[in-house]
Amino acid sequence: MADMINVALPKGRLGDTVYELFERAGFECPSIREKNRKLVFENPEAGVRYFWVKPSDVAIYVERGAADIGVAGKDILMEAKTDVYELLDLNVGKCRMAVAGPKGFCYDRDNELRVATKFVNVAREFYASSGTDIDIIHLNGSIELAPILGLSDVIVDLVETGTTLKENNLEIIEVIAQISARLISNKSSFKFKTKQIETITRRLEEVIEG
Amino acid sequence: MIINKDIFSNKEKAMFALRQLYASHGFSMYRMSKFEEFELYAANRDFLDSGQIITFTDTDGMLMALKPDVTLSIVKNNRHIGNRIIKLYYNENIYRVSPKTHYFKEIIQVGLECLGKVDDACISEVLLLAAESLNVLSDEAKLDVSNLDILTQLFESCGFAKETEEQITACISSKNAHSLERVCRSADLGPAKAELLKLLVNTYGSPDEVIPKLEDAFLNNSIFSYDEKDAYAESIGALKKIVAAFKEAGLEDMLNIDFSVVSDLKYYNGIIFKGFSAGVPDGILSGGQYDKLMKSMKRTSRAIGFAVYMDNLGKLSKFDGEEVEIDG
User: Fold this and answer.
1) Count of beta carbons in the 10 Å neighbourhood of residue B16
2) What is the ipTM, given to two decimal places?
3) Cβ–Cβ of B256/A191 closer than 8 Å?
4) Closest partner residue to A86 among B175, B277, B283, by Cβ?
5) Mind telling me how many Å the CA of B36 is from chain A's nearest CA?
6) pTM of this structure
């Protein structure tokens, strides 16, 4: 089964949407919908083997070659700077990576800007490009709480609808990047399974455009 | 001398096999027996895979570096090359931050460098040796080759800001056509040149398929002047010479043209390449022409070389049970 393509899918709502795209592209795997504790699902006829992993781990599985291809959010790719091919924008899981702060917040350049975020590298790079001194506060969740409790001046986080920000009297100050799910490939796998990976990419593109 | 074969690990067998290959092609061993001053690496920090360097103070108070690289030392210590080609190979432990763990790591590197009057024959010889190195290490390998001059020439004619060039280079290196389109749009690049950049992302694979597409797109393109077309013809010609050399050696099946192989434009130029082995997730060999580095180190000659990343090779099961014989 050397020619099977190993696909790492992100667990959760995004993963379900993404699997549907693969299914519509002709790479179905009915066993994936069965309720059981299996971790790996394969369809030898379609030449694919799927496994669910934590969304933030997809890029690592692909970069390290445990998966030939996978689907990861652009936010994860930006933060981890993984060395993979980014073959396709799947146009799902759309949101924005943005700087947000209390309504009417004005940065006083005399002091370091305190930035709370999960995306430490993205935030550091973003502010370095404008020469702003920042104090990064690395948080793993409930980022919006930080400026409310005075832990930080602003946050760098994903914003989908903006409702959470609005309900907490916060607003977007600047959009850093548009985020969506991307089809990624291990660079070495792409050299040796070129045709199969190209076919999957092309058919997914047809589904997205169709 | 009789040495028990079990004493050699697969990695050691591979290292000796590579050293033998290079020595049999007239390359001399370069031994980095002393440490270089930190300044050498600090001045060329971007040339290193990782900009971080382990330093120590020598007994005379000089700030020294624990070898992060071998190439810079070879260039520094070969000042008077004249009208010849110096052919060296090395097998050294170097100290770098791993891009995966973000910690310093001792890495075994085997590689070779040619300095001096590097001509087409020398470039082809180095690429063939890269391919033969891959064949020593792997049963199924690919060598991706690109000509950086095509991208550099295209950048010159687009007149991008440095930041845009970096963004586009990142898109090409990750075969990211969708982001490339956005960058071209925000840089107000005309559709003809945007198409050419997109072509560099989407065109890869067997030289027999790729080269006619490149010739059609660059040499029959009315947006370029005659001089520009001549420059592109020369760059495509350099790729064609390598393809011819590989065909002659019967190694053309392992050759791909792929522009996603990108190196720092500040130091590299011309032919650059990367080697892959089936089942090994990372590239195992990387190299190219670095005339720009030579120039920045006040050298008038040209240079090309490559390194094999022994730590990326995996288990090297090809060497399981391989007999080791000491000749003479």
Assistant:
1) 15
2) 0.89
3) yes
4) B175
5) 30
6) 0.91
